[in-house]
Every structure is written in C-alpha cells, then in structure tokens.
C-alpha cells in the first residue's frame, strides 16, 4: 500500500504570504451568511492572529459552483502556489474551497502540501500543519461531497417531477425542429418542423438517408438518422430511460414514427450491408441445390446469375458440386422481378391489408421463425462441411434473429409491429412504378428488402415470392 501524500507542511517561514479564498455561488448563499463581505471580514480578522505576515492576497470567485475547480481566481491561486508565492490558504468554511471530495483532496495532497502550503478552515478549527488537521480534512470533505450529492438528488427529483407533468427537462440540445419556450416550459415546433416531416415522408417513400441529406443540404446522412430516430418528434419525452407524455405538439404521429423505425430495421438486414451496383445481390437462390447465386460478368453482353455451387472460389457456399442449374441473364431476371412488383394491383393490396389486419401475429411470426430456423440449420451444415470461421459471424446473427422471433411470439405488441411492417411495404408498392426511375440502386434494393421474400431460379423458371401474402 502506498504511503499517503499528506506529509507535514514545512515550518512556517519568517515572512508569510496568506491567500484568503472566498467563494459565493448564489444570492441565497449570501443571504445565509456567506456573502463576500462577511467572508472578507472574517478572514481579515483571522489573518491578524499571524505574526510576520509579509503579504495578504485575496481571491474571490463570485457566482461559481463548488462542484468544479474551473474557477478563474481558484486557478490564479493555484498558479501562485505552484510559483512559491503563497505559504497559507485560508477559507471561512471547507465547502468554500470545494464541495467535491475528490477536488478537495486533490488540492490538499497535490497542490498545497507538495508546495509546503498550509490549509486552514476557520469554522472547522483545523489546519493541515498538524496531523489531526490533515485527518479532519479527509473526514469533512466526505460530508461536503455528501451535501453536493444531496443537492444533485433534490435537483434530479425536481426534474423528474417536471417531466412527469409533461414539461421539457431542459439542458442539453433542443431537438431539431423545435424551440424551447422557457415561459411555458415546453418545446414549440419551429420553421424546421416541416423539414422533419419531409424526412419521414421521403424515407417512407424509399429514399435513402444520404439522398434526403443531399436534398436538404445536410452534410452527413447521420444527421437524418438522428432526426428520424428521435421519439420526441411524436410528442413524448424520454428521461433516464423512461418515456413520458409531453405537453409539446408532435411533429409526426406515433404511427409514422413506428413505420419509419420498422423500415429502418428492414433496411439494416444483413443482406443490405455490403455495397453493390447490382439490384438482386443477396436475393437470388438456386432452385436446384439451394445455394446463393451471384452476378458474373459474361463478356461484353452483360451479367449472368450463376449458382455458387458452380463457382469454387468460395467453397463454404457450395451446396452441390454437381449442380447443373443454367445461368440466366441477370437483366431478364431483374425485369421479371420488376414486372411482378409493378403489376401488384390495388385490389391485391387491399386483400393483403385485410389479411394482415385479421391474421394472428403468431401465425405470421411462426412462419418467419421456421424460415430463420431453416437458415440456421443451413449455416451449421455449411460450417460443418467447410470449417470456415467466416461463417461463425453469420451463425451468431441467425441465432440472434431466431431468438428475437421466438421472443416475439409471446409479445403482445408483435401484432402491431407486423401490421406496421406490412403497411409500410404496401405504401411503397403503391407508388413504386412512378418513383422507381428516380431511385438509386441502393434505394431500389431497400425497397426490395421490404417487399420481396425470395427469388428462386430453376432452369428457365423464376419463382418470385412477395411478403405479407402478396402474390405476383
């Protein structure tokens, strides 16, 4: 155990320089007997008890909290101490120096004592020139810290009460699209609220966050993400992990927010992580062996979709080395997928809506769970055959998805989430033909992820399955 740094202060020099430190943080403290004038009077009277005083310096921090050492005259006093210009620091009361135990001990152990400066508190009747005084400083600083924490608890309790009553807690940044009205104590939508609504509308229409950022003249797509995911846009307040109903006017409805969050989850799917110029990368599977199919450059004529079992570059993706599935032109398959999407009629959408709204969430989730379980079995099989450690990450993701679905089967909110996901897909399908020419490849792939269940190729036959009971 290391020895304490609270060594004895060197004997007082013949000529003393006294540093009288004074701090007042609020008018209330002045009313309670800690005004600057009262502290000056008490310190000056105490200084007269010393003999051989060469100089008395007064340092006053008016309106500064004792919870931090970041005070101008405190820092000036520290510089003078380190320069050897001070022999004693005197305060009326310990908490005038600091209310932080850590800061108090730092000043005494790391600033005062190493520079042979004695610290004296008048009301507590001790100084660090004695062993007893040094011990008392440690004890009393604990109580100063306790008082500071009590103040914090009272403040936090008052803040929680405000939030429970629907008032904005204040502090930190005001959410984009709002101003803070200090008179009412609430958020008020400002001229940027319309830009927030625009972000949600464009995102739900299939635009990427980067596209929205570019359209609004924002530097980063992360700014759009921060706005879209901020639930205070719906009129609620999040405080210490709890949600409260706020008094401020919502910018978007809770339904719009939940649809955007559901779409965000869909777009975060693993198959959309990698960048690719190809529309169907990650969507197409071989109907004969079950392996994925990839785009392969076919001379100057374009690209074909080739089964990975026929490409030995990635052995862990091979399902059947003897697979003989012909490779179709990618452009033909893409046209077939788009034809399916563009020909979904309004009547089909309405039928699918009714089916989703009347279906039990368990049935929909069970179907997803079965597919997730089958995917996990395939991954385990591939890992067993190849031992490729790259598959372990995919297995972990598949296990996490399976666990999420199994938990959702007993979740009372599962139905609402399933309906929102379907409604979002239906909304995108309704205007897809008009919006498609303006979309980038990334945006088109995001739309496909939300509405296409699978694309399976077997010879000249292509099976395209859509989600939520839609048929093409």
Verbal overview:
By secondary structure, the protein is of the alpha/beta class. Helix 5 (101-112) runs antiparallel to helix 6 (131-164) and helix 10 (254-267) packs across helix 15. The protein contains 17 helices and 14 strands. The longest helix is centred in the N-terminal third of the chain and has 34 residues, at 131-164. The strands form 5 sheets. A 5-stranded mixed sheet has the order 2-1-3-4-5, with helices on both faces. It has a 3-stranded mixed sheet with strand order 10-13-14. It is elongated and about 105 Å long. It folds into 3 domains: 16-151, Rossmann fold (3-Layer(aba) Sandwich); 178-268, Alpha-Beta Complex (Hect, E3 ligase catalytic domain fold); 284-466, no CATH class. The model is unreliable at 1-13 (pLDDT under 50). It has helices at residues 27-34, 36-47, 72-82, 94-97, 101-112, 131-164, 193-204, 209-216, 221-228, 254-267, 330-342, 346-358, 361-386, 390-408, 414-430, 432-435, 441-451, and strands at residues 16-24, 53-62, 88-91, 118-121, 126-127, 178-181, 186-189, 236-239, 242-245, 284-286, 293-297, 303-307, 452-458, 461-466.
Task: Give the strand order, joined by hyphens, for the main sheet.
Answer: 2-1-3-4-5
Radius of gyration: 35 Å
Number of helical regions: 17
Query: What's the count of strands?
Result: 14
Number of domains: 3
The portion of residues forming beta strands comes to 15-25%
Largest sheet: 5 strands, mixed
Low-pLDDT stretches: 1-13
User: What is the mean pLDDT?
Assistant: 80
Intertermini distance: 76 Å
Give the proportion of residues in helices.
40-55%
């Amino acid at each position: 155990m290391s020895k304490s740094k609270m060594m004895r202060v060197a004997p007082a020099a013949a000529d003393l320089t006294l540093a009288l430190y004074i701090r007042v943080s609020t008018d209330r403290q002045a009313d309670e007997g800690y005004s600057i004038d009262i502290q000056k009077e008490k310190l000056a009277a105490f200084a007269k008890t010393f003999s051989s005083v060469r100089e008395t310096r007064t340092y006053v921090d008016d309106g500064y909290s004792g919870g931090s050492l970041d005070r101008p005259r405190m820092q000036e006093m520290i510089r003078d101490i380190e320069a050897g210009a001070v022999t004693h620091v005197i305060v009326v009361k310990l908490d005038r120096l600091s209310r932080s135990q850590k800061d108090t001990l730092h000043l005494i152990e790391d600033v005062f004592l190493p520079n042979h400066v004695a610290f004296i508190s008048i009301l507590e009747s001790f100084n660090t020139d004695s062993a007893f005084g040094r011990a008392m400083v440690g004890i009393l600083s604990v109580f100063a810290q306790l008082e500071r924490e009590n103040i914090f608890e009272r403040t936090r309790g008052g803040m929680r009460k405000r939030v429970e009553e629907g008032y904005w807690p204040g502090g930190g940044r005001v959410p984009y699209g709002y101003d803070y009205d200090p008179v009412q104590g609430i958020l008020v939508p400002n001229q940027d609220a319309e830009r927030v609504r625009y972000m949600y509308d464009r995102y739900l229409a299939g635009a990427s966050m980067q596209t929205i950022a570019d359209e609004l003249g924002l530097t980063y797509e992360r700014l759009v993400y921060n706005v879209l995911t901020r639930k205070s846009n719906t009129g609620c307040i999040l405080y210490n992990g709890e949600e409260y109903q706020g008094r401020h006017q919502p910018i978007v409805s809770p339904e719009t927010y939940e649809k955007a969050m559901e779409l965000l989850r869909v777009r975060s799917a693993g198959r959309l992580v990698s960048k690719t110029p190809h529309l169907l990368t990650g969507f197409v599977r071989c109907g004969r062996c079950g392996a994925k199919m990839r785009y392969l450059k076919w001379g100057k004529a374009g690209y074909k979709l080739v089964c990975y079992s026929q490409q030995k570059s990635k052995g862990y993706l091979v399902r059947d080395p003897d697979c003989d599935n012909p490779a179709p032109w990618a452009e033909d398959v893409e046209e077939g997928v788009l034809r399916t999407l563009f020909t979904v009629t309004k009547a089909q959408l309405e039928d699918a809506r009714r089916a989703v709204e009347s279906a039990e969430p368990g049935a929909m989730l069970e179907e997803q769970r079965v597919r997730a379980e089958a995917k996990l079995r395939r991954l385990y099989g591939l890992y067993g055959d190849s031992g490729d450690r790259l598959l372990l990450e995919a297995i972990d993701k598949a296990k996490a998805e399976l666990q999420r679905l199994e938990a959702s089967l007993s979740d009372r909110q599962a139905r609402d989430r399933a309906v929102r996901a379907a409604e979002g897909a239906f909304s995108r399908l309704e205007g897809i033909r008009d919006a498609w020419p303006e979309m980038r490849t990334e945006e088109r792939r995001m739309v496909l992820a939300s509405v296409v269940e699978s694309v399976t190729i077997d010879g000249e036959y292509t099976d395209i399955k859509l989600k939520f009971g839609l048929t093409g």
